[in-house]
Request: fold
Amino acid sequence: MDIGSWFTAHPATVGETYGEHLVMATSFGCRMVLAGVACILHGLIPFVFVRTGSRAVAELNQRMIAGRSARPVSGALHVDLLNS
Reply:
């Protein structure tokens, strides 16, 4: 597998270009970090951010599921560098 395909194989499996995948993954990651901070604060101060974590999970799940069903999916190779 050539180096270029390292950056394009997985995005192709979800019907995205490298740039589209970068934007989508970054937006998901930022949302998750912010929701995580809200959850930590909620743990310390239970009356703040009462629904923020669960709302973020539901929203991200919906975006991911809706996004996948709207895009054609290819059979490109999946490489998981963290779990290999």
Summary: Residues 42 and 48 are 5 Å apart (CA to CA). Confidence is low (pLDDT under 50) at residues 75-79. The chain is about 70% helix and 0% strand.
